[in-house]
Amino acid sequence: MMRKRKGYPVYPLTKAQKFHTFYQDMCPKKEVLNIGTSLTIGTDLDWDVLKQSIYKAYERSESMRLRFAKDKEGTWYQYVVDKEERDIEFVDFSGKTMEEANEEMTKWSRVPFKRVDSPMNRVVMIHMPDGYNGIYLLIDHMTADAQGLSCFFKDVIELYCNAMYEGVPYPKEMASYIEQLQKDLAYEAGSKAQARDREYFQNLIDSTPEPIYNGIRGPQKLMEERERSGNPNARAAVNVSDSVDSALDIFHLEEEPTARLMAFCEEHRVSLAVLLMMGLRTCFQKMNGNDDVSINMAIARRATVKEKKCGGTRIHSFPFRTIISEDKTFLEGIYEIRDLQNEYFRHANYDPVEYFAYRGRKYPQKGGQTYEPMSLTYQPANIQGKELTKIGDIKYKTHWYPNGATTQGMYLTVMHRPEDNGLDFNFEHQVKAVSREDLEYLYYYLCKIMFKGAENPNLPIGDIIKLI
Hints:
globular, 40% helix, five-stranded mixed β-sheet
């Protein structure tokens, strides 16, 4: 007999969700899991039709109707309600400046959700001071990642366009969140695939010596750790501060240089994620003099159409470690990263918490030391589907609103801007752990390395490091 809550079948949390509860429990600011974004379009909207499109998108997406509750033992579980009946709010910002409007939405993004039996998202229709119109969406990371979120936005737009414009087809059905959830739970219940993935990652940890921490400005933090612990061979360091207060700093790469990087990736048949990882690890190699560099890498786990369209949160994050000597060429490094990333993707259903626990038993660290100075996510998802080009050249914008808290020292999300397809480098960082100046320094060298390497792929890495 399946357990129920309020008449709905209940399911345990997935490993991806448990990863979020794991750090939310440690964080004094519960809004750490909030993701606040807006999507606005440079055209007038029919607010009634938009409201109906939002309700319809809720109806089509199970993950947007998720609820959470706790059992007597304090274990979280989840269920999906039949429909959302909340009113969709409308806020007119036309009397304010853009800065005031964004400030207001940033405030909204810092209000944590109630969690028990309550909706885990908030949608507001907005009219902006610059004349753009659209929606603000606040969502809890337990129910969506960036791809899940884009999926919902895209569905609302396509439903709206289908209702308003001739010749725009009704969007294809979304995939079932519960169906994917059941697949994940079956995997976690001791499947052969899980045993293979566990073996891969444990072997990866066992077959290499202890990793080493590389600092954003050089080995200073590691030296401090060695002095503090009295262990001259310590290889891990603390990269967070005693405060989870965070800021979001965004660096914009223009359309033309972005196109040069994309052309390099196309020519050598690698994804931009590979080039970004190569750029970052070479930066740390330059600053610290180590060939051995480890950076956390987020993997979206959305290989199939059903996984792409089921919503929810599917991200697993693992340390991505490369040992690439300076006498190898830039291109050799690129291919080494590509091959290793492909291996990771094949085994990415493995539980990241189990990975860190296994590594922690092999190399016990006291007091939160780590080998990874940062995390990287590349978000190729673009909201503009083929259907939208049929309604003419409508300009649109997306905006992220920082929630003000992070448990990581530094997290970089790289995304394409909808306006011009240039790249945005979004650095979320603890204010006390990483300064704006640190980020400018890292971003400057990251770009120099990527461009120098893309222009001279057969140059040894050591030469590129000397030239920049």
